[in-house]
Amino acid sequence: MSYIIDGKKISQDIKDEVKDEVSKLKAKGVEPCLAVVLVGDDPASHVYVRNKIKACDYTGIKSVSINLPADTEESELLQKVEELNADEKVHGILVQLPLPPQIDEDKVINTIDPDKDVDGFSPISVGRLSIGLPGFKSCTPAGIIELIKRSGVSIDGKNCVIVGRSNIVGKPMAMLLLRENGTVTVCHSHTKNLREITSQADILVAAVGKPKYFKAEDIKEGAVVIDVGMDRDENGKLCGDVDFTSVSEKAGYITPVPGGVGPMTIAMLMKNCVEAAERL
Ligand code: GUN
User: Fold this and answer.
1) Which residues are tagged catalytic?
2) Peptide bond preceding 141 in cis form (omega within 30 of 0)
3) What does the pLDDT look like over 140-168, one tens digit per residue?
4) What is the Cα–Cα distance from 43 to 49, expressed in whole angstroms?
5) How far is CA 34 from the centre of its chain?
6) Is the pTM of the predicted complex or chain greater than 0.90?
7) pLDDT class for 279, splitting at 50, 70, 90?
8) Residue 81 CA to ligand 1 centre (angstroms)
9) Confidence of residue 203 (pLDDT cuts 50, 70, 90)
């Protein structure tokens, strides 16, 4: 039976650490502030944004909500982002994705000042991360590093396998594991002999978006298994990319879904906001 990595507890610890940092900054006269821009009526985005604002309230970070209608033109949104870039009281800017089809997401992300890019999505942030310069790290992969380290596992020299190559998870995950001196393999939909590769991983990060895709036979005995999936099983119940029941018998460490990687994203966003306020 493996050790279950408690993402809820670890994310709470991080939010409490952020809360302390915020108090210290406020004592120095700096009030960390995050601007959250939401365009349109996507119900899932509304829930995400509400949770981000709740985390700001908890940690003491000021949040400014900007809600724009679904038919907002690209130029209007770009102008709003420019205004927030110029606003000295705003330390972090988050534009919730996805955006309505008339707006080019890349253009918007590119317009956010990299020093306020608390999501870590801008090409500048990604470039800084790739060459080891200080900058914002994409929140989900940064949260995964915290989950591994705070569970007492060293990444140094480990065989790390990531399945999934998205810009938000897979690619930055590879860079962060590399920074920790892991030996990194990135697998994707064209990878041959995928299960042979995953079964040799000391640390496996599963981000494929397929319910219970990895079974016990795909995993090395004692491995650290990080499940980024947010899928639905045959009964419509929330589950991950990993078949928790069978894999938890064989893995050394495993993250559950829910309560594993999920809560870390917002906690790391809060951490990035404090970092932004400290830097500016
Ligand atoms: N949409 C889904 N996840 C995210 C996220 O982490 N940041 C932003 N900006 N949009 C998202």
Assistant:
1) 52, 96, 119
2) no
3) 999 999 999 999 999 999 999 999 999 99
4) 10
5) 17
6) yes
7) confident
8) 16
9) very high
Ligand 1 mean position, distance from CA 220 (Å): 32
Q: What is the pLDDT of residue 1?
A: 85
Indicate whether 43 pLDDT > 80.
Answer: yes
Determine if residue 252 is left, alpha or beta; phi over 0 gives left, psi from -120 to 50 gives alpha, anything else beta. Answer: alpha
| Average pLDDT, integer, range 231-249 | 97
What average pLDDT does range 167-184 have in this prediction?
Answer: 97
- Burial of 34 from C-beta contacts in 10 A (0-12 / 13-18 / 19+): buried
Ligand 1 pocket, mutate which of 81, 96, 168, 173 (most atoms under 8 A from CB): 96
Distance 164 CA to ligand 1 centre (A): 17
Show the tokens assigned to 213.
């895709």
Do 200 and 179 contact (CB within 8 A), yes or no? no
Residues with a CB atom less than 6 Å from ligand 1: 48, 94-97, 119, 139, 265
Q: CA 121, CA 123: separation in Å to the nearest integer?
A: 7
When pLDDT is averaged across residues 191-204 and rounded to a whole number, the result is 98
Q: How far apart are CA 188 and CA 45, in angstroms?
A: 27
Q: Between the CA of residue 141 and those of 41, 119, 132, 196, 233, what are the distances in Å?
A: 27, 11, 15, 24, 24
Name the β-bridge partners of 64.
Answer: 35
Nearest to 168 by CA among 116, 209, 215, 218: 209
Residues 75-90: tens digit of each pLDDT? 999 999 999 999 999 9
User: Is residue 38 within a helix (H) or strand (E), and if so which, with residue range?
Assistant: strand 33-39
Q: ω before 258 within 30° of 0 (cis)?
A: yes
